[in-house]
Amino acid sequence: MSILILVAASFLMYILVAWARDPLQDLYASNSPNRDALIQQRIEWLHLNDPLPVRWFNWFVGAAKCIVPLGTCDLGVTIQNQPVATLLGRAMGATLQLVTGATIFAIILGITVGIISALRQYSAVDYGFTFLSFFLYSLPSFVMGVLLKVFLAIGFNNWLRDPVLSWAVIIILSLALGLFWQAMVGGNRQRRLIVFAGSALVTGVILYVMSVTSWFLDPSLGPVIAPLLIALFAAGMALLIGGPKARFAWRTAGATAIVVIIAYFVLMPVMSSFDVWGVIAVFAGAVMIGMLMGWLFGEHDKSQAMRIGAFSGFLGAGVIVLDQFLRHWNDYVRNPKVGGRPIATVGSSTPNLNGDFWISGIDSFTHLLLPTISLMLISFAGYTRYARGGMLEVLNQDYIRTARAKGLPERTVVVRHAFRNSLIPITTIVAADVGGIIGGAIITESIFGFSGMGALFNKGLSAGDPNPVMAYFLVVAIFAITFNFLADLTYSALDPRVRAK
Question: According to the model, what pLDDT value does residue 436 have?
Answer without folding.
Answer: 67
